[in-house]
Amino acid sequence: MGGISLSVHPLFFLFGLYYSLTGKIFVFLTYTFSALAHELGHSLVANKQGVKLNKIVLMPFGALAKGDIEGLKLLDQLKIAIAGPIVNIIIAVIFVATWWIFPETYAFTDLAVEANLSLAIINFLPVYPLDGGRIIWALFSVKYGEKKGEKLSKIISLIFAILLFLVFIWSIFFGLNLSFLFFSIFVLVSAFGKNKNNRYVRLYSELNQKNLKAGMPYKRFAIDGNANLKSLLKMLDYNAVNEAVIYENGEKIGVLDEKRIKNLLENASLYRKIKDFV
User: Fold this and answer.
1) Cβ contacts of residue 237 below 8 Å, gap of 6+?
2) Quick check: pTM over 0.90?
């Protein structure tokens, strides 16, 4: 199935340097771990939709991945987008709940609550590549088409970037806050940059010769031909060689071997019926 590589955006280093010089390194680390939890939420829900992250880019403000979820229906895209903020909210609620039982933990967990709630709120902003921006992009694409939807989303991102920069200018006179500057640069670079290395990719079982030499399990299962490829994908064992026996009305209509399954998951829509390929 392959691992997930981790890289760090240059702005993340700049953000960390700023917090280090201002004596807030623990704040920075807390936000970093909260951001990783945020991305774990995206990854887990993405897996259930038949796609995965092959790369996570560690960025400030918790927007770790700019993945492409092309080919998924709007509802599935929204599920992936909302999963990250929901994880942050759940973590914050759990910590707050512990305050009622163990009040002494407040002093050690209040920052974690603040970080997770902040990341959830920030990521709901309608700015790409934040989760709110992904939702807006998907909605615009459905209503106006992909190209116009992308254009409208970027216009909104540009407006937010300008507003954030103006707030930074204002802060110079009333208490300098570099976070607004970092945020405005982050929005501009992420929304208008071109990077497809961290896109979502389809999940499929890639046979490894080394594993085959050592021996691999063989999984054979049955599934109704009227089910879609997304349902087939959920049946796969990524540590085994898979073979699907396809039935319709109780009758066997065909078999999909490992190579055929891999080809379908790479090239066909996950919402097509399995029997269309038998």
Assistant:
1) 205, 217, 219
2) no
